[in-house]
What does this fold into?
Amino acid sequence: MGKLILIRHGESVWNTRNIFTGWIDVPLTQSGIIEAAKAGNVIAGIDIDVVYTSALVRAMQSALIVLLGAQQKRTPYMIHGFFDRHHARYHKINHEIADNMIPVYRCWQLNERYYGDLQGYSKSRIADLFGVEKVLNWRRGYNARPPKGESLHQTARRTMPFFNRTIMAQLRAGKNVLISAHSNSLRSIIMHLDNLTEEQVIGLEIDTAHPIVYNFDGKKMEREHLNVTRPI
It folds into this structure.
């Protein structure tokens, strides 16, 4: 039986400034780093076999910090997705050492929803320009699409094929998989796993650095209740 651990990145620099971030590649704050480390403590009893992050630095930072906080015995290492004359050097490792490593894959399919023309603007300014109700619909609705950006439905069209093809294969093999991603890419996945309707997903909120764990028995996913002994 494999475990699936979903985690939204820790607090980012633009989270604190209430700015639409999307695919803009900003790092974690000091508080975000601490959040990720505490999240690692929560899942410390789970041996992670493979990690998938988005291609954005806040998700990659969070994944590595979570693994350190979880006190994994194996060493995480980044899998580079480019193929140039140096590619083999990044991944040259003997089989004995490879057994003590945790591969970490960067996957653009797990990126946050692309917010288009809203990226880089404060949410309060956008609300003043377009109205609170419209902005809330852009942020939480399923089909609503911000100007030149993605709807949640469009986000799911890239996350779910990748999830079903790549991540489910690892779970079927009995691997424990960690996904470090973003609010909306994770909402699209959880909508599928929990069989949520378009109306139900509107109320789905994903907190920063709060692990969500599912057990996969080979046929179905069941969410696990985490015994969180300290605030995260």
Q: What stands out?
A: DSSP finds nine helices and seven strands in the chain. The radius of gyration is 18 Å.
